[in-house]
Design goal:
2 domains, two-stranded antiparallel sheet, 5 helices
Length: 108
Amino acid sequence: MTVRQLLAEFPALAYTTVQTTLDRLYRKGLLIRLEQGRAFAFEPRCSREGLLNELASEHFVDVLAASRVNSGILSTLVHCVGQKDTALLDELEALVQAERARIQKGRK
């Protein structure tokens, strides 16, 4: 969407406010900027789910790096997953098995 198109959705905002916000999101790598005539159109670099996955991955890496005993962190993750939805535990187990297979394949 262009700044002008977004303004229709947010009429209380100034053109420059929307433009600055989009530019900042572009510089942070969250948006892709495409030329459309004399203006720029912006689109998300990835889906909401993709962005959440990236953010979670960064945090998991940081937490695991900060801890000497990773089993407590992993135990907490499994506990939280189980509390949210027991079917997710099966999905987590399948993901662990798939990652083990990928690692084993890479070693060969």
